[in-house]
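#structure-requests
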Amino acid sequence: MKNILLYTFIMAAFGLQAQIDRSVRPQASKAPAVNIPDSEIFDLDNGMTVILSKNDKIPRVSFNLVMGTDPMLEGEKSGLADFAGSMILSGTKNLSKDELDFKIDYMGANISASSSSIYVSGLSKYDLDLIAILAEIVKNANFPESEFDRIKKQSASALTMTKSDANTMASNITNSVVFGKKHPRGESMTEETLEAITLADVKNYFHSKFTPRNSYLVVVGDIDAARLQELIKNTLGDWTGKVTESGKYVVKPNQKGSRVIFGKKAGAVQSVIQVAIPLNITPGHPDEIKVKLMNQILGGGTFEARLMQNLREDKAYTYGCYSGVSIARTGSYFYTSGSFRNEVTDSAVTQILSEIRTITENPVTEEELQLAKASMSGSFVRALERPQTIADFALSIFRNKLDKDYYKNYLKMIEETTISDINKMAESYLDYENAYIVVVGNEKIAENLLPFDQNGKIEYYDAFGNPETGFKKADISAEKVIENYILAVTQSKTRKEAEQKIGKIKSMTQVMTATPSGAPVSFDMYTYLKTPSSEAMEVLFNGQVMQRTFFNGKAGGMESSPMAGGQSIEYSDEEVAEKKKTIGLIPEVNYSKHEVEFKLLGIKKEMGKDYYVIETSTSNSVTQDYYSVSTFQKERSSSVTTMEGETSSSSVEYRKFNEVNGILFPHELSQMAGSMSLLVEVKSIEINKSIDDKKFVK
């Protein structure tokens, strides 16, 4: 009997398997009903709305305090909100930053803050301690000046890095042209706006924005309403504040005709391309889900999307090309993004625009639609596995004024979308003839993009989304700029006096500390100069020399330790000749002696300041030095170097000029080499100290 049953089972299984045609894609099942439990919601007398999503499966709880107002224009202090957000966890009147960090670490908890929220989570047995910490911060944050100075330095380093990060540059420019500078999303922090931000600004921002009026406390985890109300009463019950202002800004009208906006990245071998189209749509709009499905088909992250299949698989222009839709109360837009080789930049723009046009003119296939539905539905279902999602949905319903069953019907709305709907979305929203075409890359390829601009004109923007002004004609000669710089840096009245001061310096030893942006470690740098033409540099980590360069006027090179690659390179005759031209305490003093080629490009405004820009050229590099029009001090340099067919770029900014032996030396530098950003602080400068000649030889 057992054998008969086994035989019957095997034959049934075999028969079932034989009936499956694996060449046919299985039909999608109907969208299941989404059983999203309702959050418990109650209002407090101080104006706060509490949203509780109870989940007792694991003994954890989180408290997320979210401010209810939209961002405001910041103008000359752009970046203030984010700066303030980064300082919120710097300590309170009753807890220093270290004490606050210790409390969080002791509980194994997590805490974070932004310009509009504070989040803390941990084990539910610490629920009182967690919400007490949140209450302590919102009521007593004290913003110490030491933290203000530290974060300001970090921000300055990040801004330096922005200038060589093509993706960040492209995003800044795209936001600027889509929203405009009279809209908060079109603003970016610059060096000038960072300098304008004061500690008082930070405190005023926090106290005016972080109030209970129109705020939301989103609570998720193993806690019930009665316990939560008790905790709030004991911690946040006495928190009061005025109603905050809503953001006021101008909505930029859509442009007529496509524009090409170019950001220059010296030496770039790739271009970042972002094509952006504004969308007249807000969260919860009846078309929102259909627009997202349309985007999914065009380039929304899957390998099968049209942009990826065309630009990567067919044309091999890139490793990836994607599209997305940013939909928010403050404004929405569609965008594409990808990095492409210089030589195919214009071809890539052609193909991107072609794919956008095609989806507006021709129906998508049923297979494409089903793949998009499966992808979006899967992402939605996976998100439901996180308890936080339920509370986020409740918050979204409140803030965006959505139907209370919006998320319960989400899968149903996806499933009911048709090919005709996708066609209508593309035709209605993808106005490709009025697109913003943002390209960041090597200026040499900019002219190739002229055919894409409605007016046949390339617009140039800087790394922070501001139009470049170009060069104004200078009122003095290049030689006079150099002369005035030498007088300024030596604090002299005549060239003879300047050269006498310089001549008294026979050697210099400079000790610096360099910290890579975002890294928890730093390393030491030593530079050595010795007349008439010797120069060396050592980079040390934990007291060990990792890399050194050396030059004695006749020969030189570079060495690195085994830990740093173990390389040993000697300068070629050509490199030795070029090195002789730029060596010295103040290289400009010997420009005429060494027949250095230099020319004045004109006056350029950057970050609100005017600079004389002088360009010097060698056989393998081009350098632009920026001399302040008001002081003649050199405040920045940028170089593009080509060696063995490879091009690289670097830049340095000089700050905090202090006098040593009658000469002004920068004591803080921001250096950028490739994608690495360094904040360098000068610890000491010793003049005429004995230096071993071994420093300058291999």
